[in-house]
Amino acid sequence: MTSSTASLPTRRRTTQRLGDRIFSGATLTAGTLILATLAAVAAFLLVQGFPALTANPDEISLFDGGTFWTYVAPLAFGTVWAAFLALLMAVPVSVGIALFISHYAPRRLAQALGYVVDLLAAVPSVVFGLWGANVLAPAIQPVYAWLTANMGWFPLFAPPVSGTGRTLLTASIVLAVMVLPVITALCRELFLQTPVLHEEAALALGATRWEMIRMAVIPFGRSGIISASMLGLGRALGETMAVAMVLSASGGISFKVLTSANPGTIAANIALSFPEAFGLNVDALIATGLLLFAITLVINMIARWIIARRKDFSGAN
């Protein structure tokens, strides 16, 4: 082999077409902009919120004589607790709807349901807030009264029951409805990508349709379900207007979900308190936003770690 022929593969590897170079540069720029934007947001929250963390708590009226951590702890708890309850309700329903659309429903019905799910994701959060405060809360309050009277021994349903229905559970139901189309749409597309050979092999071995789904479809999409759930959780953690309109927050940390004494959420508290805040109070609210940013980042890191552990067992590989 001569030197000219030996250098030919190297020259082919190093020479790129103009379109490839443009695409590579565009993707590199997009990735860099995402990291730069994330770093800029973190820097802004840190710089603007740091004065409230180091100032005398007595100078900040929002703290009401306490410290930053006594002020933000109930809000952080309410944020995580409401989002967890919403995810607990939304994920099973979303996976069920996605499986029905992808493997059970006739083609025309599946297309119609897919359009409805996609349209539901486009509804503004203010509309969900109006629906939750004016329709859902009054309608579900008798159910809350029955649960408290008959299952009050269960800590989550302990009395006293709220007379308006604007409780943490109502806010969680609204959040579940809001994140449901996001999770459903992602799971639906993922289930449709299951290799046909895997499904046909399971059916050929005598499996029923549900057994085929349990053995082939769900293992293939397990990591995708976790990713979709984390996207829904991210929206639930940061949701503002719907929670602010539905939830009647009074502070404190409590696992009870049917009482009128409900912990607030960070995002809703910022939206409600920011118009009247000034000076160090603004910095304090920004500092709570920094904590919400950290909570979201930690949860997503945990989700990525779970996906990395499970990917070896996923059919996607």
From TrEMBL:
This is Phosphate transport system permease protein. NCBIfam families: phosphate_pstC. InterPro entries: MetI-like (IPR000515), MetI-like_sf (IPR035906), Phosphate_PstC (IPR011864), Phosphate_Transport_Permease (IPR051124). It is a multi-pass membrane protein. Its main location: membrane. Signal peptide: none annotated. PANTHER family: PHOSPHATE TRANSPORT SYSTEM PERMEASE PROTEIN PST, PHOSPHATE TRANSPORT SYSTEM PERMEASE PROTEIN PSTC. Keywords: Cell membrane, Membrane, Phosphate transport, Transmembrane, Transmembrane helix, Transport. Part of the binding-protein-dependent transport system for phosphate; probably responsible for the translocation of the substrate across the membrane. The chain crosses the membrane at residues 21-48, 68-101, 113-131, 168-192, 240-258, 278-303. It comes from Paramicrobacterium chengjingii. Belongs to the binding-protein-dependent transport system permease family. CysTW subfamily. It is found in: Cell membrane. SUPFAM superfamilies: MetI-like.
